[in-house]
Amino acid sequence: MSDDALMAELRETLASDGGLDEVQMRLLDSTDLLSLGMLADEARQRRHGQQTTFVRVAEVAVDASALESLGQAREIRVTGVPASVEAAETAVRAVAGQGVPVTGFALHDLMGLASDHAAEFARLLRVLCDAGLVAVSELAVDRTEDPESAVAVVADAGLAVSRLTIQDARGDARLAWVRTVAGWSFPPRAVQAFAPLPRAEGKTAPESEPATGYDDVRQVALSRLLVDNIDSIQVDWALHGPKLAQVALTFGADDIDAVPAVDADELGPRRTSLEDVRRNIRAASFVPVERDGAFESVTP
User: What residue ranges do the domains of the chain occupy?
Assistant: First the structure.
């Protein structure tokens, strides 16, 4: 079969949500970046049309006494590692009740608080849910044992996981994690997004070659094509910057996380974070839709 025929068959399989065989997987791995981007964009638009969501986030440290400024936040995110179950509960209660969904913590840190004891972990999640938490902020796939079972416990407690993340991976390990995530099973809407670009790349293997922008957009595209079990592919505005976020949208991403909720006064009304992210989304030929921390669209 010719390469064109193989590519046509690959496109048909992706459009029908069918599983890829080994030949198609090898073809996908060797596909040039522009063709890969076209396939990923088609997959993205089948799920989300022209819509791109974003969220403005106000972060508060778990050991802070109060949130410094809510700004225009649509999500309040508790950050850091709580020293105890009581500290985690207190931090959530301190910022809940403001009409803005509260998320917080990394799942492996919460499991550590429960000393990896299943019943204690489930109890902790229920305590946080009762305190006002709507979702665990992240599940780091390379830091969390048995993610499928952990997500099921989170869902049983009435919570969701906002995003799966990769903390540290280079080279082949980056794609390996994408394939691993694609093979997991989760309860419906238990995991809202997958953020495939590593957060702290190179710390465990600083001698390895750093990733390039080419590697990053290819990672995003392959994530959209392979990860059928999670609805949104996400990029982080604060971590990766507006330029990479905008390019990632044309390679399969559909959600932008961590847009600042508070703007510097000197920027002026045309340079607010809201206008900046909307402008970048429109420049990528998509329609910006603001959402909240529960992944629900909000009325402007």
Answer: 52-290
Rounded to whole angstroms, the Cα distance separating 30 from 139 reads: 30
Fold of 52-290: TIM Barrel (3.20.20)
Reference 7, options 18, 44, 30; nearest CA is: 30
Nearest-angstrom CA–CA distance, 109 and 16: 39
Radius of gyration from C-alpha coordinates of the chain = 19
- Condensed to tens digits (0 to 9), the pLDDT of residues 170-211 reads 888 998 999 999 999 999 999 999 999 999 865 555 556 778
Sign of the torsion angle spanned by Cα atoms 140, 226, 237, 153: negative
- The pTM of the full predicted model, rounded to 2 decimals, is 0.92
- CA–CA separation, 290 and 257 (whole Å): 11
**The two structure tokens encoding residue 268:** 């002026």
Could you give the residue ranges of the DSSP H alpha helices within 183-262?
A: 213-226, 237-249
* CA–CA gap between residue 214 and residue 191 (Å, rounded): 27
Q: Which helix (H) or strand (E) holds 287?
A: strand 287-290
Closest alpha carbon to 136 in 153, 120, 119: 153
Q: Is 284 exposed, middle or buried (0-12, 13-18, 19+ CB in 10 A)?
A: middle
